[in-house]
């Protein structure tokens, strides 16, 4: 192995080791049981989904309004014609 490949392998080993230590510590010091944590994750995911839908609708509404304003500015009504 070349020196660069050894460095990359060593780094990958440290990352994998750190991940395992982090997971182990997370399991040891988890503030809630697994079922409580899963329930909280599902609840938070539903809230995030609702918020994403609201944001998407707001963006869609804003884009539609901008398109209307842009079309009106590009094609103004002639003077004397009712809108």
Entry keywords:
mainly alpha, elongated, single chain, 83 residues, 2 helices
Poorly predicted residue ranges: none
**Terminal Cα separation, in Å?**
77 Å
What structural category do the secondary elements indicate?
mainly alpha
Largest sheet properties: none
* Helicity range: over 70%
Radius of gyration over all CA atoms, rounded: 28 Å
Shape: elongated
User: What is the tally of helical segments?
Assistant: 2
Mean pLDDT: 86
- DSSP E strands, number: 0
Strand content: under 5%
* Pattern of helices and strands: HH
Molecular structure report:
- The protein is mainly alpha-helical and 83 residues long.
- It contains two helices and no strands.
- It has helices at 3-28, 34-74.
Characterize this entry briefly:
The protein has helices at 3-28, 34-74. It is mostly helical.
Task: Describe the secondary-structure layout.
Layout: H1 3-28, H2 34-74
């Amino acid at each position: 192995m070349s020196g660069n490949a050894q460095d990359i392998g060593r780094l990958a080993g440290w990352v994998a080791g750190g991940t395992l230590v982090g997971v182990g510590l997370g399991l040891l010091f988890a503030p809630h049981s697994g079922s409580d944590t899963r329930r909280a994750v599902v609840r938070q995911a539903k809230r995030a989904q609702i918020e994403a839908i609201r944001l998407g609708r707001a963006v869609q509404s804003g884009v539609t309004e901008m398109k209307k304003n842009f079309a009106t500015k590009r094609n103004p009504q002639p003077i004397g014609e009712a809108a």
